[in-house]
Design a protein that fits this description.
- The chain is an all-alpha fold.
- The protein is 88% helix and 0% strand.
- The longest helix is centred in the C-terminal third of the chain and has 28 residues.
- The chain is elongated and about 45 Å long.
- It starts with a helix and ends with a helix.
């Protein structure tokens, strides 16, 4: 379960980097960071969903 939290944390860090780039006006980097954040957060969600289905479908 630890890897799920790490993926989520990394996704949130990329999201924070995207916000900082958006504030500073670097919109190309902001787009890249949003894509990376989405990939990590989706990966964490699917891993979390897979683990919960293996524990009786909670």
């Amino acid at each position: 379960m630890r890897h799920v939290y790490m993926r989520g944390l990394i996704g949130l860090i990329w999201l924070a980097a995207a916000i900082v780039c958006g504030i500073s006006g670097s919109f190309q980097m902001m787009g890249l960071y949003i894509i990376l954040a989405g990939a990590f957060l989706y990966s964490a969600y699917t891993a979390w969903k897979k683990e919960n289905n293996g524990r009786g479908g909670r």
